[in-house]
Design a protein that fits this description.
alpha+beta, globular, 1018 residues, 31 helices, 33% helix
């Protein structure tokens, strides 16, 4: 418990003292292990312990046991590992971490090979296979060598003279970004589709083939927001959906999972090749957070943990090394569970995965207890793998610090302990307690196994044996085993084996139509799913396979995962009149499944109007059977708007007319029609209007007399306070597309008189759609009295040259002060193409920014010595910062998390506030998009696909734009946080703001004000 500070102190100093005493220990991502420094006591630095002692300190389930596999000096800084067919253990040692070699010195990473000569499970006798590698972080054994990810490249290393050391180095691919060793390409992993996948490390790059026989016609592929895969036999390569930081794995059926710092388990649900089929389809994400992520995650470390970001306490902050355990020797309850390393909390986390539609959901393996934890604060688990014995293996870097100085406060970047532990490292395995004394020696026979023997090993319950056998079969390309694989694909007892056998037939170019046909009729849905993928890729013109796919869509026994794949695959086959009705029937029953809805949209590119009309008739006639799950009106509205938007964005007059012809018949009519049916009608109009607007068209140009009925209903519902808010908002959206003279009176009334914020925001959005000078006047009326959230909404609507001109007129006339304009608006002005308008805007808004940041920072230095009030600072934060940042219970995290105040001095906070571009993470660079209508959108890019880009904007709003609707996309090269904040707050407010950022945990007054120094916390 904090004690009361009686002596007089300079403002903030007590907090600085505690912070500096704390952070001088050791940092891990954004956690710091430390003694309890709440009372100001100096933390005691823990010492490393030897491996034999460390293994005794682990806490794990009673039915399991942890064993030491290897330790220093035999293994140092292990970050990746793999067992070879001869049972030897290959390890990547990343001793460059974190700063790389000294200037002009050789790199320190290397690949070493360890052996277990006596079969006792302990590995030693290391041989250095390759050294002087820079930031090596992953490996995959391939043919007579090994693929290693390192320094922006994929290398192939080979020993050609048999001395155990690589004497040949080939660069296979290059161009991966190498800004930071923690954010580089990693985890080369062979997938079920016989391609090698690589996690891009978040930073991406422009990757190109560099191998001699592949590079002649090679072209770079962008990994912006995506990962990478290549065919190791042909050399073909491409970017793929998803973006992993340090972790990539597959389950038994080829589902791909990745992780990043705050996301312990992401399932990549939608592959980019499907999205590329439909340029009218905008999707905000392609992955599912299977495990709770970020602030939703919960960890239970038993070591001393201190978070630099207070919002991250006991949450995932450095998730890595994700593995789906696929069986072997652990009890069955662990099979198909996800395991994720969290080195900052000195633990390994486990979640139990459960299928849910096209993806999965999860629950913790044990409530309130981690799978594996220790009090040893040097334990840094970073990677996991399966072993030849079926055990779960853990790579432990065993470091004092596991964080790159780039993410540390200035005063910690040159700490002396950054490399402490670089002479240490451990590898452990988890085995059943009752089998620990009955060790199964690692297999050493696979390297010499015959083709038939390898096919037989596909039946093994050990995933390492299955995967190794599959890789060897793929490498050998032995045509003689095709009959055996065919037999295995049709009659093997295990579904994963049948799936693997089909994949290997394809990888060896031996896949026959009969093989696929048999797979499509398999009793197991996952085998049928795999066969569908092969059918669409290898036999896309086969009408019989198309009909089988349609039958799966119509089969009541098909589970949602199979329906999802069938909905994706059907788009690859020849067109047929039966396809759209089959898709409509599926989506009408499963409208609540976001992923299935999107899968249908990838295949119904040309038939969407017919499909949506069929769905609308289905719902309007109440055709839902007793076996159909209950759907909410919101589910139906979401589907209708998504599909109608696609129809509108294609700008085919006949398609729009088809939908408009049927809508009034279904959802309008007399006033006795239900509110829910009216909402579905509104959804059609709102979706169509949104799509048409993307093409420069407007719904008003396609009006039919019957549409007026829905508009009339919308006019009444918009102002009816007895109507549910969500229905009112949908009605208001319709008025955004109604004739201006009809809609303006109602919208003006709502904008100027409504007090309910969500209704008011909807009215602002709706009136902004009307390009009429009168609407701009309504938007700007009473601007100075609006709340920050409403001001932001209004300024977002002021995005066209005419409206910007009107705003500048108001500023020029003194009706609106330049200081009332959020600095974010200034960024949009900078992108104006009208030179005269831009010059005028810069002149009028110039007072909101200072070019010389150093002068501004110097001018605000007195704020560091003023008395400060925590509660006043909270109000300043809410008004000025909360649209993009969250601290405590205030705000929305759009930009970087700024609650990590324990390691930042007030001087640092002052600099960061007044000069936000001085040190900004590239993930938080602002981007500006000008659409084809000239509207300017700014934000952070959170998702990219072949067809769309998603921006995250202030207040957490997401905007997804089709690439074809983007006229220009540029990075500002600057923080999303605008320069010029000082014009909105004076020195006293700055002092209060910094007080809140430093001391927000005490905002409830539980700690006396003198403890936090100089201010009042009550």
């Amino acid at each position: 418990m904090p004690h009361r500070q009686h002596e007089s102190i300079r403002p903030f100093d007590s907090q600085i003292l505690v912070a500096l005493l704390t952070v001088s220990v050791w940092l891990a991502s954004d956690h710091v292990s430390t003694a309890d420094a709440a009372d100001g006591a100096t933390a005691v630095r823990p010492l490393p312990i030897d491996a034999e002692t460390a293994v005794k300190q682990f806490v794990l389930p009673d039915d399991l046991q942890i064993e030491l596999v290897a330790a220093e000096p035999d293994v140092i800084d292990p970050v990746a590992m793999a067992f070879a067919p001869d049972g030897k253990l290959w390890v990547v040692e990343m001793s460059d971490y974190p700063n790389g070699p000294p200037e002009n010195g050789p790199p320190h990473s290397r690949v070493r090979v360890l052996s277990d000569a006596d079969g006792d499970g302990r590995y030693g006798d290391p041989i250095t296979f390759a050294d002087k590698l820079l930031f090596a972080n992953g490996l995959l054994l391939w043919k007579d060598g090994v693929l290693v990810t390192t320094d922006g490249q994929v290398l192939f290393l080979r020993d050609t003279d048999g001395d155990g050391q690589a004497d040949e180095r080939q660069v296979w691919f290059e161009g991966f970004k190498k800004d930071n060793p923690q954010l580089r390409a990693n985890h080369p992993t062979l997938g079920l589709d016989n391609h090698i996948y690589i996690a891009s490390g978040l930073r991406g790059g422009d990757v190109i083939a560099a191998r001699e026989d592949w590079k002649q016609d090679a072209k770079p592929v962008s990994l912006s927001g995506r990962d990478f895969r290549f065919d190791p036999l042909s050399g073909t390569y491409e970017s793929v959906s998803g973006v992993g930081q340090f972790g990539l794995c597959f389950d038994d059926f080829g589902n791909r999972f990745v992780c990043s710092n705050r996301n312990p388990c992401n399932h990549i649900v939608l592959e980019d090749r499907y999205l590329a089929r439909n340029p009218s389809l905008a999707v905000p994400r392609v992955h599912e957070d299977v495990s709770p992520a970020a602030e939703k995650s919960r960890l239970y470390p038993i070591s001393r943990i201190w978070t630099t970001s207070n919002l991250h306490a006991n949450q995932f902050t450095a998730a890595c090394g994700l593995l789906i355990y696929r069986g072997g020797i652990l009890p069955s309850k662990y099979h198909a569970n996800s395991f994720t390393c969290e080195p900052t909390s000195n633990l390994v986390h486990r979640d139990v995965l459960t299928p849910k539609g096209a993806t999965f959901t999860s629950r913790p393996g044990r409530d309130g207890v981690e799978f594996l934890a220790t009090k040893d604060e040097w334990f840094r688990p970073v990677n996991l793998t399966h072993g030849p014995d079926g055990a779960l293996y853990i790579a432990d870097m065993y470091r004092s610090v596991i964080e790159h100085p780039q993410f540390m406060p200035v005063e910690l970047k040159e700490r002396s302990d950054l490399t402490d532990g670089r002479d240490r490292g451990r590898i452990y395995r988890i085995v059943p307690r009752d089998l620990a004394s009955k060790r199964k020696a690692a297999s050493t026979t696979l390297a010499s196994a015959s083709g038939p023997q390898l096919v037989e090993l596909l039946n093994s319950q050990n995933p390492w044996e299955r995967d190794t056998a599959a890789r060897l079969l793929l490498e050998r390309q032995d045509e003689s085993v095709a009959p055996l694989l065919t037999e295995s694909a049709r009659s093997a007892t295990s579904a994963p084996t049948r799936v693997q056998s089909l994949a290997l037939l394809d990888g060896g170019s031996q896949l026959s139509r009969d093989d696929v046909a048999a797979g499509l009729n398999d009793e197991h849905p996952r085998v049928r799913e795999q066969a569908l993928k092969l059918a669409e890729l290898r036999f896309p013109d086969d009408q019989a396979f198309r009909d089988r796919c349609v039958a799966m869509l119509q089969d009541a026994e098909s589970d949602e995962r199979l329906l999802f794949q069938a909905a994706l695959s059907i788009g690859a086959f020849p067109a047929s009149d039966v396809v759209a009705p089959a898709l409509a029937n599926v989506v009408a029953r499963h409208a609540d499944d976001h992923w299935l809805r999107t899968a249908v949209a990838t295949s119904a590119v040309d038939t969407m109007p017919e499909l949506l009309v069929t769905v609308l008739k289905h719902w309007s006639n109440d055709q839902e059977s007793p076996s159909t799950k209950s759907l909410t009106v919101a589910d139906k509205v979401e589907l209708i708007e998504q599909y109608a938007q696609m129809i509108g964005s294609r700008k085919q007059d006949a398609d729009v007319a088809m939908l408009l012809d049927v809508t009034p018949q279904l959802f309008a009519g007399d006033t006795s029609a239900s509110l829910s049916r009216h909402r579905l009608g509104f959804a059609v109009l709102n979706g169509l209007a949104s799509g048409l607007r993307r093409t420069g068209d407007r719904l008003e140009q396609h009006r039919q007399p019957a549409i007026d009925d829905l508009i009339s209903m919308a006019l009444g519902m918009a102002v009816n306070e007895a109507v549910a808010p969500e229905a009112r908002m949908e009605a208001i959206n319709v008025l955004g597309e109604a004739p201006t003279d009809v809609a303006l009176p109602v919208l003006s009334e709502l904008v100027t008189q409504t007090k309910e914020q969500n209704i008011l925001l909807a009215a602002i959005d709706a009136i902004a759609k009307h390009h009429d000078s009168r609407t701009t006047e309504v938007l700007l009326t009473g601007f100075r009295g609006r709340t920050p959230r409403l001001r932001n909404a209004i300024l977002a609507a002021i995005s066209t040259p005419n409206r910007i001109t009107s705003l500048l007129d108001e500023i020029d006339a003194g009706q609106i002060a330049a200081s009332d304009i959020d600095p974010t608006f200034r960024q949009r002005v900078d992108r104006l193409t009208d030179a005269d308008l831009k010059a005028r805007a810069n002149k009028l808004l110039a007072s909101t920014t200072d070019a010389d940041r150093q002068e501004v920072i110097a001018r605000y230095q007195p704020a560091l010595t003023l008395d400060h009030d925590l509660q006043r600072g909270r109000a300043v934060f809410a008004k000025t910062c909360a649209t993009c940042h969250r601290v405590g219970d205030v705000g929305v995290n759009v930009g970087a998390d700024i609650s990590d105040t324990r390691v930042k001095t007030p001087e640092q906070l002052l600099t960061n506030i007044l000069d936000p571009n001085k040190a900004v993470d590239g993930n938080y660079f602002g981007y500006t998009i000008i659409d084809t209508e000239g509207r300017v959108h700014t934000g952070i890019i959170t998702n990219e696909t072949s067809s769309s880009v998603t921006l995250r904007q202030p207040e957490g709003k997401n905007v997804t734009l089709l690439r074809r609707d983007i006229d220009e996309l540029v990075s500002t090269g600057k923080s999303l946080m605008p320069v010029g904040l000082e014009k909105n707050i004076d020195q006293q407010q700055m002092a209060d703001l910094i007080s809140y950022l430093k001391n927000w945990r005490y905002v409830d007054g539980a700690v006396p004000g003198e403890v936090i120094g100089g201010g009042n916390s009550e």
